[in-house]
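From the shared-data thread, chain only:
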Amino acid sequence: MAEKKIEIVSTRNAESEKPQKQPVSPFLRQLFAVSGVVMYMIGTGANIAYPGVLLEQLRRPDSAVRLTPDHESWIASILGLALISGILTAPFCLQKLGRRLTNQLSTLPTMGGWALLLTARSPEALLISRSLQGFGMGLQAACAPVSIAEYSAPKHRGVFLATIAFSFATGMLVAHVFGTILYWRTAAIACGSCYVISLILISLSPETPPYLASRGKFNECRKSFRWLRGYGDDSEKELEVLLNSQRKTVTNTPKVSKFKYYFDVIRKPEFYKPTFIMVCMFILFQVSGMTVVPSYTVPMMNEVTSGHIEAYTSMLMVDVVRFVSAIVACIVVNKLNRRTVLFLGIYISVISLFTTSILLYLRDFGYIPDPYKWTPVIPTLLYIFGKTLGILPIPWAIAGEIFPLAYRSLGSGISGLTLSLMFFVVVKTAPSSFSAIGVKGTFCIYGLCIAICGAFLFFLLPETNGKTLYEIECHFKGLKDKISRTDTCEKDRMLELEKVEEG
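Structure, as C-alpha cells:
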C-alpha cells in the first residue's frame, strides 16, 4: 500500500510539471526513433531481393561457387524457414527484453550472415549465411511494426508504418542496382552496411513508452513518452490513459499457471480476432508474390517480355515502379482509410494479374503480332504498382496497431509465424510453378488467392486510421457496441483514475 501511495504521489508530481520547451519537434523525434527500424527493413528488402542478382552471377561459367537448381531454390527460400526460429524467439524477447534491445539483438545475426556471405566458397556456406539473415529478420518481423506503432502519435502512425513498405522497396532497389553493377561479394558489403547504421540509430533511441508502462516503469514511461510526443493536451491525455490502464494491470494481475494464462488469452476476442485478421493479412502478403517477384525477377520478366527487353533492364523497371509506388503509399496511407488503400491495391493487383495471364496465353496462341509481344509488361508493372501500394504497406501498418498491449508480443509472434511459413512455401514452389505452368499460370493462381483473401478481409478488417492504440483495443473488446469509442475510452480512463485514488 505504501509503495502504491508513493507511486500515486509521484504521478501527481510528474503530471503537475510545467511543460518544457523542446528544441526539436515531436515529429522529428519520432522520425529519428523509427529510423533505426526503417534502416533495418531496408536491409530486409535487400535480403529478399539479393538472390535475384546473386543467382544470375553464380550461373556464369567463371563463378566461384557452383550451384544446382535445387541449391538455387533453397538459397532463395531458406529465409522463410530461418524466419520461423526468429519468430518463435521474438515473443519472449519482446516481452522480457523490450522492443529496443530486441531491435538491437536482431542486427547481430544479420550482420554475421552478410559477413559469412563475403567469404563463402560453397553452397553450404551460402545457405548458413542466409539462415543467419533469416533468423535476424524473424526477430525484426515481429518487432518492427510494434516498435514503430508504439513510437508514433496516431496522426503520424500511418505514414511511419508505411515506411516499412518504402524500406522494402528501397532495399530491393539497392540490392538489384549494386548487384547489377558490382561483383556479388562487393554488393554484399553495401547491403550489409544497412544493419550497421540501423544498430547505431536504434542504440540512440529510447525504449517505447507502452513497453515501459507494461513493466511498471511509469516514470521512465512518462519521460520517454514526453521526449517522443511533447507536452500537448492530446498527448498528455493519451499518456494518462496509458499509465492508468497499465497501472491496474501491473498491480492487480493475479498469478496463474502458464497453461491457464494462455488458455484464457486465446478465448478473448481482443486476442483471437486481431490474430485471425493478421494471419489472413500475411497470407495475402505472400500469395500476392511479394517475396517471389524480387527473388525471381529476371526469369519472370524474361517470359513476360518475350526477350524484347533486356533482362536487367526489365528488373530495374520493376524496382523503379516498386520504389515509386512505395513513396505514393507513404502518402496515401496517412491520407486515406486503411481499408480503402488495401482494397484498392487488391483490385488493381487481381485485374492486372488476370490481364497479364490472358495476354500471355493470347501471345502463345499467336494472336499478338511480333512487334507487340512485349505488351504484357504493361499490366505486369501495374500489378507491381497495385501490390506495393496496398498489399505491401497495409499488413505491416495493421500489425503495429491491431494487437492489445498485453498480447502484442504473442500476437505478433503467431502472425509472424504464418508470414515465415508462407514465405518458405511460396518462394520454394515458385521455380517448379514457373516450370510447370509458366508465369501465366502462376499469375492466375496468385490472382485467385488474392481475391479469396481479400473477400475474407472485406468482412473482418476494421478501420484503424486516426485511432489511438487504446481505442483499437476498445473496438475488439466490443465496447463500441455499448457506447461510442471516445466516450468509452474516456469513461474507462476516469474509472481507472477513481480506482487509483481509492487505493
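Residues 27 and 460 are 32 Å apart (CA to CA).
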